[in-house]
């Protein structure tokens, strides 16, 4: 451990924190790391934890890493990062009785995006934390990737221990945990200000100021108070194409398209809800909002309300325990009557696995060029992620998902307009059916009990007979099935030699795509359905598949041929070369408009290296490894952006793609870059972290950019052509 954190490094201003997942799970080593860092006065609280591969499944108090980093960890490689700043987020006040944890987390997400916490740790403290249950805290911590932090940390307190007891943990172990954490100074009393650490920066939130809200229509950080939802959507309709705009002509705002469904006539217009999903790991593991949704459904049914039959409703809990307590509390039947029946567990609509909409609904949306809406209790609502036919997608609490499903539109002011009129002609308002926190807590106290967790967890390895009956080969080497369209031997190690090649400059590169701000990993490598007119679909058709068997990009991530063709295949990708949304680009030598994969293939055949230009927050969203592997396979050698999300930048490094960053004050526009130039990036023989390099254009212009290899370890990965190549060579040496 002393080799991992040398005293000389601890005394420096810029420290590299090495996290070895095999070491820190040992209490003695963990304790050494914590106290060593404290002794050097870096922070009163330092975070060292085992890492999770998925950006959301880690839930709480875990640093968030990408898939490529996790692959290296599985092969025994520690992860390095520059010791991050720690932002203290002070909570005080008491939430209003109608506020949900989702309202709080969407407020926090917007606030921290404004503060700017990319690459930083966020620790929550202050007396307001005592107002939050463990599930509420987990909901806030679990949205960490959406506000861009590397980790969101709630120190352990009495409420944490009570939760462990409630979920069936061993009493003796809990006593040991409590004693240990108190001994090392990591147990917190949030009401004792003398225990508050010293932070790089402190920001505050008064919980009493939080109001019911949603986020959208295209980003998780774009929070909207529910009272402003109607006005905000109507403003977005006519606004210029962008995060808050659909650029619909004024004369088209009132468009309405009638259609037939199951023998009855309905009408769709801008803002009509066509997908309503209680989904994702964040909210569906939180008893307060799930029981809140159930109680709202109960009151809605008792008032004679219903959901229009063409709206695609679903309920995908994060755990079998959720189904258990929804049934035991008696609310599951009411959810079922409104169409919210359990369709499965885990990632569904949130990641684009909602499945197709009814054909009459799709035809009506297409005919009227309507901005239809999806409402979901998920983490992410980026363009093209939820469904290709829902251009507006809003994140909301599970109770609000049901409310908007009943209303059938997001163009409603719940304060002044009834949510619906029942069969007796009575107007019902949302306030008539909305459960209070006290009502929810009373039900939770009775029905969310330790025995429930024990029973579900004890059966987890036995309950699925089909899974248990699967036969797996015992061979040490994987046997590739060359007929499979799901799993294919990837070309990442083609041409790999034991001898390292010196870094070379990138000469006369063409720009494949000229992109703007907040290009997400969903834009780069979508996980949803494979469109019938896409290059991936053509590949699968040539392999003998029909459209019904295409499945999704997420399901075919084991096939590099599909995933390379799916790179930049998001239908909402806005390419400045085309000045419109499309998964296409211009092949600069010929001027032809082609699908991105086809253009990249032509460049590769001509031996032309490729570059991507982008704005701020490039690679935000999911920690999707294929958002780096895909560009690598397209022949992209570097990305030049104004800023990066931490995980995606790390993933690019892991694949040997150079992340370049404009110097402060510089952008593509300020430098007069059109993207049609040829770019030569001068790579020196001797590289240092975060060094400046020259970019030369065929126009004669030269400017400098920063090479975002932040540590010596990342430079080592680059010299090897990526982290996987590095690990293969390292393993071969042994």
UniProtKB/TrEMBL annotation:
One of its GO terms (cellular component) is cytoplasm. One of its GO terms (molecular function) is iron-responsive element binding. Its main location: cytoplasm. Residues 537-662 form the Aconitase A/isopropylmalate dehydratase small subunit swivel domain. This is Aconitate hydratase. The keyword ATP-binding does not apply. It comes from the Eukaryota. Transmembrane segments: none annotated. InterPro entries: AcnA_IRP_Swivel, Acnase/IPM_dHydase_lsu_aba_1/3, Acoase/IPM_deHydtase_lsu_aba, Aconitase/3IPM_dehydase_swvl, Aconitase/IRP2, Aconitase_4Fe-4S_BS, Aconitase_4Fe-4S_dom, AconitaseA/IPMdHydase_ssu_swvl. PROSITE patterns: ACONITASE_1, ACONITASE_2. Coiled coil: none annotated. Belongs to the aconitase/IPM isomerase family. PANTHER family: ACONITASE/IRON-RESPONSIVE ELEMENT FAMILY MEMBER. It holds the Pfam family Aconitase_C. Residues 65-408 form the Aconitase/3-isopropylmalate dehydratase large subunit alpha/beta/alpha domain. Its cofactor is [4Fe-4S] cluster. The keyword Cell wall biogenesis/degradation does not apply. It is found in: Cytoplasm. It comes from Scophthalmus maximus. Keywords: 4Fe-4S, Cytoplasm, Iron, Iron-sulfur, Metal-binding, RNA-binding.
């Amino acid at each position: 451990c002393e080799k991992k954190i040398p005293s000389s490094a601890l005394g420096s201003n810029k420290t590299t924190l090495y996290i070895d997942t095999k070491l820190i799970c040992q209490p003695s080593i963990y304790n050494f790391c914590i106290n060593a860092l404290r002794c050097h006065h870096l922070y009163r609280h330092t975070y060292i934890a085992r890492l999770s591969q998925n950006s959301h499944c880690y839930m709480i108090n875990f640093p968030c890493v990408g898939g490529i980093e996790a692959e290296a960890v599985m092969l025994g490689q520690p992860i390095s990062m520059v010791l991050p700043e720690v932002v203290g987020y002070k909570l005080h006040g008491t939430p209003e009785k109608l506020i949900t944890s989702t309202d709080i987390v969407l407020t926090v997400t917007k606030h921290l995006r404004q503060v700017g916490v990319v690459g930083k740790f966020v620790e929550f403290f202050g007396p307001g934390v005592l107002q939050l249950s463990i599930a509420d805290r987990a909901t806030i911590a679990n949205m960490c990737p959406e506000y861009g932090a590397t980790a969101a940390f709630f120190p352990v307190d009495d409420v944490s221990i009570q939760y462990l007891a409630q979920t069936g943990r061993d009493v003796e172990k809990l006593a040991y945990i409590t004693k240990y954490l108190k001994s090392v100074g990591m147990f917190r009393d949030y009401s004792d200000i003398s225990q508050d650490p010293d932070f790089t920066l402190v920001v505050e939130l008064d919980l009493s100021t939080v109001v019911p809200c949603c986020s959208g229509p295209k980003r998780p950080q774009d929070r909207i108070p529910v009272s402003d939802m109607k006005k905000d959507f109507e403003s977005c309709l006519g606004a210029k194409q962008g995060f808050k705009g659909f650029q619909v002509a004024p004369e088209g705002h009132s468009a309405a398209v009638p259609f037939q469904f199951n023998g009855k006539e309905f009408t769709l217009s801008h803002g009509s809800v066509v997908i309503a999903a209680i989904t994702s790991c964040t909210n569906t593991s939180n008893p307060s909002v799930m029981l809140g949704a159930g109680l709202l459904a109960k009151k809605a049914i008792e008032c004679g309300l219903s959901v229009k039959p063409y709206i695609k409703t679903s309920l995908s809990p994060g755990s079998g325990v959720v189904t258990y307590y929804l049934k035991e509390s008696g609310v599951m039947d009411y959810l079922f009557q409104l169409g919210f029946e359990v369709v499965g567990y885990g990632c569904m609509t949130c990641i684009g696995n909602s499945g197709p909409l009814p054909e009459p609904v799709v035809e009506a949306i297409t005919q009227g060029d309507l901005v239809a809406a999806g409402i979901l209790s998920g983490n992410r609502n980026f363009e093209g992620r939820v469904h290709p036919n829902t251009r507006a997608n809003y994140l909301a609490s599970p109770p609000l998902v049901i409310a908007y499903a009943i209303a059938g539109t997001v163009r409603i002011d719940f304060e002044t307009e009834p949510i619906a009129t029942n069969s007796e002609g009575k107007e019902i308002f949302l306030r008539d059916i909305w459960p209070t926190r006290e009502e929810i807590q009373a039900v939770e106290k009775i029905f969310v009990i330790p025995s429930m967790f024990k029973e579900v967890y004890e059966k987890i390895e036995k309950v699925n007979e089909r899974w248990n009956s699967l036969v797996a080969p015992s061979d040490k080497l994987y046997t590739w099935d060359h007929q499979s369209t799901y799993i294919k031997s990837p070309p990442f190690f083609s041409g790999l030699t034991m001898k390292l090649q010196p870094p070379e400059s990138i000469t006369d590169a063409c720009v494949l795509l000229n992109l703007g701000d907040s290009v997400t990993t969903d834009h780069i490598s979508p996980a949803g359905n494979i469109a019938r007119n896409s290059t991936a679909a053509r590949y699968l058709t040539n392999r003998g598949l029909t459209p019904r068997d295409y499945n999704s990009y997420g399901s075919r991530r084991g096939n590099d041929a599909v995933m390379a063709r799916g790179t930049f295949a998001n239908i909402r990708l806005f390419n400045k070369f085309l000045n419109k949304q499309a998964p296409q680009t211009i092949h600069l030598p010929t001027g032809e408009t082609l699908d991105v994969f086809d253009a990249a293939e032509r460049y590769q055949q001509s031996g032309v290296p490729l570059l991507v230009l982008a704005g701020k927050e490039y690679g935000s969203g999911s920690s999707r490894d294929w958002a780096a592997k895909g560009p690598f396979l397209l022949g992209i050698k570097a990305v030049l952006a104004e800023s990066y999300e931490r995980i995606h930048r790390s993933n690019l490094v892991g694949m040997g793609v150079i992340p370049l960053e404009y110097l402060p004050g510089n952008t593509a526009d300020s430098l007069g870059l059109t993207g049609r130039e040829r770019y030569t990036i001068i790579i020196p023989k001797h590289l240092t972290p975060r060094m400046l390099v020259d970019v030369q254009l065929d126009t004669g212009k030269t400017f400098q950019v920063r090479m975002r290899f932040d540590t010596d370890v990342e430079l080592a990965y680059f010299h090897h052509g990526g982290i996987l190549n590095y690990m293969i060579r390292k393993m071969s040496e042994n």
